[in-house]
Amino acid sequence: MSEEAELRAKLKRAAHMLFFRTHSKPGVKGWELKKGLGRNYLQVIDLLNKELEKIGLRVETISQEGEKPKSEQDFLYSSFFVTFKDPPDWPEIRGSGWRIDEMAALTACLSLILSRGGKVKRKEIDELLEKKMPSWRARAIIERFFRMGYLSLGEEDEVIVGWRSRVEIDLQKLMNLLLGREVGTA
Amino acid sequence: MKSKLKKRREILLRILDLCEKALKEETDPFQVDVVQLFGKLRKLLPELETEEELYLDLEAVLGLTSVILKQEEWIRYRSSLMFLDPLLVLLKIEKLEDKDLADVLRRSWRPIVEARGISPLFLEKAVEYWRTLPSLEERRLELVEASESAGTLTLSELATLGFASEEEFLSFLNSEEKRLRKEADRRGGEVPYWEFIGAETFEETIKRAYLVSFLCSYGRATIRRDPLSGEMWLIPLEKPTGNKVSLAIPIDEERWKKRNVRGGGIKS
Most exposed residue of A52, B90, B240, B261, measured as fewest CB within 10 angstroms of its CB? Predict the structure, then answer.
């Protein structure tokens, strides 16, 4: 097989590995990609990223600590995901099944957690959402965020930012947008 | 002499207490005057006599070092852009409309794109499930049987099962637990449920099933169920676990006969 054909085959395999979910949680570990694509897996991912950018997607990598990996060893134990390259438009969101009040609730939960140094008591989250919606609805939404990985439970049952939020949401930008937002400017 | 010793001990303990409070509570670690406290420790050091005092001194130094580390973290956090006034954030959340809050998320959001894949293992399990799935007729029969309503046992019914008093019941429960543990040890940790409760008579089988249900409720045993075959295994537990699941197992004479557990159970 020529070098180009081999690279193309690897590119295809990388796309399959990243898109198709085989674990309970999405994402593929660096060592799994290395096993499937060979030693130069990071170059293949780089190439795939360039291809994906053309259709508005990108490969996002996040370390076990929830940060960008720095060393080669970090990459091995990091998770790789395919995400949107740019934020979705409203029509895309409408088609995804997300409701406005759920999105607002997630913004509220995440911003409260971030403003408190990364963790808050579950009761505080409940109380915050119950100001805007019935308590049963608030509880159901929070449970859903836990299930999806947007929120998770830390030590002493405190609510912390979940793995999915770290992958999907630019938390710094979220806070800047929230604080810079003027009341009544939809 | 003793009063001096007591005073030194008190100072050391007070420093330790201060450090602990600063580390545990989410208060400003700069409320602890580290320089002043290190000065105190330096003054005290030549006077320390006992091993306990020296140990407390060491603990205090370590505590103050941890406070310094916390102070460093505090500065880093406060100086970073991520530090935001919680009150201001709360005010914003309360004042902004849902649509505004949702738009904040939308503009900072890049959702994961994924497709659910079917692995060979998943296909293998699915084929096995389909192969062992009873026909619709059989399942209809089972559904009708399962729809029998659950009820409670009265004291007289309990007496017919052979439980005359609470003490007697507990002694039966303990002997059943011992039997389960012995059998599980022999079989490598698990005992098939129907085999364990199976007895010579239907009444005895019911009695055993009843005792097993108590063992599970008290967290002394648990039941593992194979989702595909429906077979159940009893597992004795060393410590009660928090993960309790509710499992209803219908037993009637027909089912007992069908299971062919008559006389095939494990002897007491």
Answer: B240
